[in-house]
Design goal:
Blueprint: E1 8-12, H1 16-28, E2 32-36, H2 39-49, E3 53-59, H3 67-75, E4 84-90, H4 94-102, E5 107-111, H5 115-128
Parallel strand pairs: 1-2, 1-3, 3-4, 4-5
Helix pairs in contact: 1-5, 2-3
The structure holds magnesium ion.
Magnesium ion (MG) is lined by residues 13-15, 59, 61-62.
Length: 129
């Protein structure tokens, strides 16, 4: 399966298990991946490599620079706003989902998720955008 050989996805989460699982699944589906575990590093990677990044899988709850701040930076900058953003959220945080949508998030995935769910959702976001 290599229908997306040119798409690069940045995975940002402060939980290493989530990053590792997500990275593995995306690579198996022939996506290129970049990973980091905080918002500050995410902003640096986006600044350096925005032209090659198609999608960011972004945790909202991180110490330091929050996912919401990263989302705001992406969607308010003409150079970055082509990048799709899917938020990793926790089910009980309905206000975050609403706020994320208002700020231009392209979708969200509720934790915990399976590899299959993740991949199907990522593929569907690419198909509909
Ligand atoms: Mg987190």
């Amino acid at each position: 399966m290599d229908k997306n050989p040119s798409k690069t996805i940045l995975v940002v989460d402060d939980e290493p298990d989530i990053v590792n699982l997500t990275d593995k699944i995306l690579k198996l589906a022939s996506y290129n991946t970049l990973t980091c575990n905080n918002g500050k590093e995410a902003l640096k990677i986006i600044e350096d490599r925005y032209s090659e990044i198609s999608l960011v899988l972004l945790d909202l709850m991180m110490p330091g620079v929050s996912g919401m701040e990263v989302l705001r930076t992406i969607k308010s900058n003409d150079m970055f706003k082509h990048i799709l953003v899917i938020l990793f959220t926790v089910k009980s945080f309905k206000e975050d989902i609403q706020k994320g949508k208002e700020m231009g998030a392209d979708g969200y995935i509720t934790k915990p998720f399976s590899g299959k769910q993740l991949l199907e959702y990522v593929n569907s976001v690419f198909e509909t955008h």
